[in-house]
Amino acid sequence: MISVNYYVILSAILFAIGALGVLIRRNPLIIFMSIELMLNAANLAFVAFGRSWEIAKGEAFFNGQIFVFFVIAVAAAEVAVGLALIVEIFKTKKNINIDEMNTLKG
Amino acid sequence: MTSELLVFLVLSLVAIASALGMLFSRNAIYSALFLVLNFVTVAVFYLTLGAPFIAMSQITVYAGAIMVLFLFVIMLLGAERMTAPNALPWQRPLAFLLAITLTVESVYLILTRAKPDTVIAAPDAATNSMESLREMAMTLFDKFLLPFEVTSILLLAAMVGAIVLAKKERAGSKS
pLDDT digits over A40-85, tens only? Predict the structure, then answer.
């Protein structure tokens, strides 16, 4: 028997791994990937809670899935702009170490 | 041990292992491929939770489009191996401590305080039918029509933003 808590615990662990990645890695591309991992963990919790509600009420319930759909769209937009920014920073600085991105001028 | 629980445990093991592999790979390309594996595993979780449409969009959008974009940028910049000296030596142990604290406290709170604890049944044939997908589309285009349209504006803004960032240099040299 799987309860909804198993999924939420898995989601929490994946989120913590993503947060750890943001803290310890110096490569902004890996930091971006960790952010995607955290978004995914939240999505998993959304779908699990939606399914839980569906089972508790006994009727079809799609709000959780639709929210995940929007999160996926926002993540796609975010990645497009973020990677364009990283490429632009690389063009001017010839380096993408985040420790050196400490100035606001380009 | 039921087969459902076995599937869940094996899949969650793969998900956590691939997430850790993403984190600790020296080569950024391996990280991206580990993340693809993680996304596919999460898509299988969506299937077990009765969300086939979300599972397929996860594979096409995340594991397909977004990760191809990542791999493309990694190869474009040649950022596979970045061995930069760590500017803050105390940051790494502190980060591990904080992440472990976050995991332990959230798992503890979920196990002790989260109520009610619904049992997740395996999706039946009706969940994976075309009729269910049609119903989801009706919800999306009826109840969530405004957010859906706002998403299109967001995607347009992201597209314009990416083009402007990519074109900046040429415009600067002309003026």
Answer: 999 999 999 999 998 888 888 899 999 999 999 999 999 999 999 8
The full set of domain ranges for chain B reads 3-81+88-143
Count of CB pairs separated by less than 8 Å, A with B? 229
B51 closest CB neighbour out of A1, A21, A65: A65
**Residue in chain B lying closest to A91 (CA):** B77
Q: Note whether residue A54 is domain-resident.
A: yes
Cβ <8 Å between B166 and A87: yes
Å between B25 CA and nearest CA of chain A: 10
Please count the residues of chain A.
Answer: 106
Architecture of domain B3-81+88-143: Up-down Bundle (1.20)
The contacts of residue A30 (CB under 8 Å, 6+ apart) are A21, B22, B23, B28, B31
> Could you report the predicted ipTM of this complex, rounded to two decimals?
0.91
Q: From CA B92, how far away is CA A23, in angstroms rounded?
A: 8
DSSP B86: P
